[in-house]
Specification:
The complex is a heterodimer of chains A (549) and B (216).
Chain A lengths: L1 H20 L14 H9 L22 H11 L3 H6 L2 H4 L29 H4 L23 H5 L20 E3 L4 E3 L4 H6 L6 H8 L43 E2 L2 E2 L26 H5 L8 H6 L5 H5 L9 E6 L6 E2 L2 E2 L1 E3 L5 E4 L3 E6 L5 E5 L3 E3 L12 E2 L1 E3 L9 E15 L21 H4 L2 H12 L7 E11 L39 H34 L1
Parallel strand pairs in A: 5-15, 13-16
Antiparallel strand pairs in A: 1-2, 3-4, 5-10, 6-7, 8-9, 9-10, 11-15, 12-14, 15-16
Chain B lengths: L1 E4 L3 H25 L7 H28 L13 H14 L15 H26 L14 H25 L8 H8 L1 E4 L20
Antiparallel strand pairs in B: 1-2
Helix pairs in contact in B: 1-2, 2-4, 4-5
The chains are: A alpha+beta (549), B mainly alpha (216).
């Protein structure tokens, strides 16, 4: 009796050891991740150290007539602000690693498959430039008064730049025909006296509407993030932590943390637990690389799988996002006039000026190896038009220690390219004046629009164009869902139609199989079973025969 | 017929614990492989890991027991009468012949069983535990200097051994029905008492354990 008791205790101990090394057993989940508590504490007190009431400054009480006048007033105290801002990508719209000749960046030769390129279309595009007056190549990037302090810092929500005003707000009430909204001149005193740290509205005004409309470019950034619920974004949710963008996109000398072209958002995978001065831009900054308390296996994934891959099950969960844009279908007219057609999601599926579009909601991302850098094509890069052209693509590979599997929105496009020189083309889309028939949105004439755009860009054009299928990717990193909506193991660890089915070169349990072993294994088992059954049958038959004897 | 106390309490506990763990491992293992979906991948993995580690730990207990009690002698392979035993299962059993090597306290296993259980306990099960162990420690391979291993290779070996164990289970379960009644052997493994035919002498070579007169 004693011995069996001893054995039983040993058995129990071994079970407890096994349970210990595999983490707490099922049903004993402790979901408090390390770092979560400290992150919570850091945002608990929302009052910032602020020793200035801007409404009491005489310099902000003067009669302003324009934005640059306000900026000059700001600079009387904040003497270095414009000089700092001039060095940031929000001002230059250039990849900081680019040379003057390469001009990599949307302010230069970079191409996308939305409105393609800014050159010759400035006044429309630069309505999202944090500056005043970038209407053509003559813009003075050294002028300190051209910086628009208000668009990022004003807190009244009444300051609006005109969508086609090269970054200026209007002087008198003006109708923007495209969305039928009348824009009002700002009350500069009220706006200037309201300044504070940028809130969601400041960032969202541009970043939620990239590509000229709500949710056009990013699938994980749209107007639904102005007032999100926790289930749309655990960090930003008003019923959750209510983070503003700058909570993670922390700033140094007006340089806002985040991925910029080929420059990753963070160079090191370092958490605040390891270094209290580490960047706050990554998930791991607060959550560390072992954030799962009740699921050791999930922690085993963090070396190769980015947090976003599982924690953002789908993007565009509230508002639809544009998934395809076919410029080649543009230019159809009804009764000689351009028209629009609204699709089932309430978004235009055809616009004469822009062509055919596809919108989607609740989109499953596509997954690629990603080291934080994205490679971009420019107007001057040679392409291979015989296959789909990746206008940009995530860099990284399975063998790269810095790469992890990361979710992306992949936007498909069909856009003009040069059939002879084999490069993508800049088109003059936005009319500079009511008579600018060379602009596609006025004249619906591709040859003329391309010729004008390329001449403005100063890049050789053969005169022969066609349309080519392209893709453009956006990393999916916002709209982090609550843990209850996390992507389940089986959505990847499955034989067919898994989320990672097109990623190859590694063995994934549940997805990958050795066909030969499967056939042999099941074959031998079937034969064994058949043999056993035959043997049993033999015994039954011989026994019955004997009894009958 | 007489009844003999053949299997001790520990042996029976050991046997059924083995059975339980191996069944759980096979069931969850093939779910992880994607053959079917019952528990869900995550639950299957969790149960598989906990059970696998428990199995590994309990195996050390078995090794301890088998050597301290001298029961290891029951597993020494022999070729004597092996042909007769094989012939019995292939032909004799259909003719109603008696088993050439009936069970005895000192000789629980016939020569075929001895060989099978030796291969099982000394080779197949440890291999399966080892591959499972390395599979589970996949994330530590680099730290252990095992980066040359490929997960696909280890996983495939693990699967091959699983197939082999499942094959053993099928044959083993079937063989339990070949006693003098269909459930005789299973009953013995539950109660410990096995019916043994009277008047059958156990030859010296068959005996294991310290009571073996040939060795005393």
């Amino acid at each position: 009796m004693k011995r069996s008791l001893f054995m039983f205790v040993l058995f129990l101990l071994s079970w407890m050891f096994a349970a210990h090394v595999t983490g707490p057993p099922l049903g004993f989940a402790d979901e408090t991740a390390p770092g979560r508590e400290s992150a919570r504490k850091k945002v608990e007190d929302k009052a910032h150290w602020n020793t200035t009431d801007h409404s009491k400054h005489k310099v902000l009480q003067q009669a302003f007539k324009s934005g640059p006048e306000v900026t000059k007033a700001c600079l009387t105290c904040h003497t270095e602000a414009s000089l700092q801002f001039h060095k940031t990508i929000h001002w230059t719209w250039m990849d900081p690693n680019s040379t003057e000749k390469e001009k990599r960046g949307k302010g230069g030769y970079a191409i996308n498959n939305f409105c393609i390129n800014m050159l010759s279309n400035e006044p429309r595009c630069t309505s999202c430039h944090a500056g005043y007056g970038w209407k053509d190549k003559t813009f003075d990037f050294k002028d300190q008064s051209r910086v628009d302090c208000l668009v990022c810092h004003e807190q009244t929500g009444t300051y609006k730049k005109f969508p086609a005003g090269a970054g200026y707000p209007v002087d008198k009430p003006t109708l923007f025909p495209e969305n039928n909204v009348t824009f009002m001149p700002p009350d500069y005193n009220k706006v200037a006296q309201s300044v504070g740290l940028p809130g969601r509205k400041n960032c969202g005004t541009c970043h939620f509407f990239g590509g000229g409309g709500d949710g056009v470019k990013h699938g994980d950034l749209d107007s639904s993030l102005f007032k999100p619920t926790k289930s749309l974004d655990v960090h930003m949710g008003l019923d959750g932590r209510d983070f503003p963008c700058v909570r993670c996109h922390s700033t140094s000398l007006h340089n806002i943390a985040g991925r910029v072209y080929s420059t990753p958002a963070a160079q090191d995978r370092e958490s605040l637990v390891e270094n209290d001065l580490a960047s706050k831009i990554t998930c791991e900054s607060c959550h560390t690389s072992t954030p799962h308390m009740d699921n050791k296996k999930a922690n085993d994934h963090t070396d190769k799988v980015a947090c976003q891959s599982c924690h953002i099950p789908t993007f565009a969960r509230v508002n639809p996002t544009k998934m395809r844009w076919d410029w080649s279908k543009g230019g159809k007219l009804k009764d000689g006039k351009p028209y629009e057609e609204i699709g089932s999601l309430g978004k235009p599926v055809y616009i004469s000026k822009k062509g055919e579009m596809v919108w989607e909601k609740n989109v499953k991302p596509q997954y690629f190896w990603y080291n934080g850098s994205i490679k971009h094509l420019t107007v001057r890069d040679t392409i291979d038009p015989t296959s789909v052209v990746n206008v940009n693509e995530p860099l990284g590979s399975m063998d790269d220690k810095r790469s992890r599997i990361f979710p992306f929105k992949v936007h498909q496009g069909k856009q003009p390219y040069d059939k002879v020189n084999k490069n993508l083309l800049v088109a003059h889309l936005f009319p500079r004046n009511p008579d600018d028939k060379a602009a596609y949105w006025k004249g619906f004439d591709w040859p003329k629009a391309i010729e004008t755009g390329m001449a403005y860009a100063g890049i050789p054009y053969s005169g022969e164009y066609d349309f080519v299928e392209t893709t453009y990717v956006y990393p999916t990193t916002h709209m982090v869902a609550p843990a209850s909506q996390v992507v389940s193991c089986r959505e990847c660890h499955t034989r067919t139609d898994g989320r990672l089915m097109h990623l190859s070169g590694f063995y994934m349990p549940g997805r990958d199989h050795n066909r030969l072993i499967d056939v042999l294994g099941w074959g031998i088992l079937s034969l064994t079973l058949a043999g056993v059954l035959l043997h049993a049958l033999g015994r039954i038959v011989t026994r019955t025969a004997k009894k009958e004897d | 017929m007489t009844t003999t106390y053949l299997y001790t309490r520990y042996e029976r506990l050991w046997h059924w614990a083995q059975m339980l763990m191996i069944m759980i491992l096979l069931f969850t293992g093939f779910e992880i492989k994607g053959v079917y979906s019952v528990l869900g991948f995550q639950t299957a993995v969790k149960i598989h890991n906990i059970t696998g580690l428990t199995w590994l730990c309990s195996f050390f207990l078995f090794i301890f027991w088998v050597f301290t009690t001298g029961e290891w002698r029951q597993y020494i392979p022999t070729t004597r009468k092996m042909i007769q035993v094989a012939r019995y299962y292939a032909i004799g059993i259909f003719k109603g012949e008696s088993h050439p090597v009936p069970k005895k306290k000192d000789a629980k296993h016939n020569p075929l069983q001895r060989l099978t259980y030796l291969l099982l306990a000394a080779i197949l099960l440890p291999l399966q535990m080892a591959t499972g162990f390395f599979y589970w420690f996949f994330n530590s391979w680099d730290a252990w200097g095992l980066s040359f291993l490929s997960l696909g290779f280890v996983a495939t070996l693990h699967l091959i051994f699983a197939f082999a164990i499942l094959q053993f289970v099928i044959i083993h379960v079937y063989m339990t029905t070949t006693g003098h009644t269909v459930f005789a052997h299973i009953k013995a493994m539950i109660t410990g008492w096995e019916d043994i035919e009277k008047g059958v002498d156990v030859e010296d070579w068959e005996k294991a354990g310290r009571n073996n007169p040939a060795k005393n």
